[in-house]
Fold this protein.
Amino acid sequence: MLNRLISPYLVMFAVVCSVSITACAQEDPYYGLYVKECATCHGDGFQGTGQGPALAQPLPIEQGSLDQIIMAIKNGAVEKGMPAFGQALSPLEIKRLAILISEVRMTGVKGNDYYNVQQTFSIPSDPIQTEKHAFRIESVATGIDPLPYSIAPLPDGRILVTEKMRGLRIVNTDGSLSPLIDGTPQTYDHSYQMPGVFLKYGNGWMLDVTLHPDYEENGWIYMTFGDRCMQCNYISRMSASAVSMLKLVRGRIADGVWVEQETLWESDSTTYTPMADMTLGGRMTFDDAGHLFFSLGMKGVSNFSDIQDLDRPSGKIHRIYDDGSIPEDNPYVNHPEAVPSIWSYGHRSPQGLEFNPRTGKLWGTEMGPRGGDEVNLIMPGKNYGWPLYSKGLNYDGTPVEYGKQLGIELDLSTIEQTKIDLTPSPAISSFVIHDGSVFPEWKDNLIVGSLKATELFRMVIDGEDIVHTETIIKDFARIRDVEHGPDGTIYLLLEHADGGQIVKLVKD
Ligand code: HEC
């Protein structure tokens, strides 16, 4: 039990120490292997030497695939001085090195600021030319908390914004911010902050905010948050720490106050854990038949517990009606032990969730471990594989195969495969499915944000497949949320150590 309790903290350690290539070199098994086998020719900092070229050119994700790097390491180019490592290194070691090189290429080596949280960024003044459309980026609001989570543009041009450790505010049409809305669920500025790293991990955070499809008639606003308690279950009593779990409410705003709150979904206290709320997900989307889907990430006592268990809510996409009642045709509703709201399972860290009313399809993004970020077509009753299988590796370089610990045999044919494997991980975030009203050539494309890679991607869907990916904003800022305004305008919510911002894409 103690071992399981410690694991959230180990996960955090791994997250921090695997990512800063220069700062955490000794702890990083990928980098250690690189130094041993490769650095004499390619340099400690990937900068190249007289005996081998630089390996650190930043590349957008659609160039230079992982497989190409794997082949280069395996087969070498012996006559040009690059040894073949296919015999000397195992396939897993070669994959680790390829992931390391591709990570360095994606983000460049930026000292300790691997997450690009402190990297100064500016809004480009020139129009951005892309394959199908040119657009400009315009500022909408600045001065938001450095850690915002979600935006929901209102019909009158104002925008609701959640700040994880603060609560809910309104961005006025002139870009000014309202005071925090009174009466919303309590949030906590509770965080364990790693030295030198800006990212925070805590319990009791405000997450997604979204409007009911008939908001103009009924005024309902939906919110998810990490509901926090102390001493409320075995883990919290034993560890004397706060625990939390996702909770979903709706309410209305009247005269600047959150009123008439109704709890639509919550879980019993045995499921509350100290695992950081950054793993909760909590993204919501409505379909056109009165259903509300929401995501709940790996909020077990470890990053792999509960996710394959249908009697636990973590690692699932859930479906309820807009009033919180359970649809009778949910896939596990007749399963005696299952949480009845479960729609799909095996999700690691879901970041975006969108229903396309034109195609009737539900799409979701989720972060993998080291590599293996995913875009999934979400279907009822399906298993998306975590933690039995991932195309990425664990932070310590081992393959993802927790089935052994869980006593679950992996049968790949029962696992729904991702529609695109993003390795190295751009730290995929939220997205919209564009309706074509502002950018006609992007109709039904996914417009997908990323955090670490600081890029905005456009993914073209053909039926059930992603057939093309374009990076439409390169090297920009951490994009936490992507949303549509009522007129189809695409808004981006940016996070940064100096303050969050909202920008919009304006057709040129
Ligand atoms: C003895 C020197 C030497 C060592 C050791 C060496 N390389 Fe290379 N490597 C080279 C040279 C020279 C080239 C350029 C080959 C060419 O021009 O085609 C190269 C090319 C590459 C390329 C392809 C270039 C690109 O931009 O994609 C990759 C990837 C690579 N090396 C990775 C590694 C890795 C990983 C290791 C350690 C396991 C390693 N190399 C060890 C000399 C070396």
Residues 128-507 form a domain with the Neuraminidase fold (CATH 2.120.10.30). The two ends are 58 Å apart (CA to CA). Residues 171 and 316 are 32 Å apart (CA to CA). The first helix runs from residue 2 to 19.
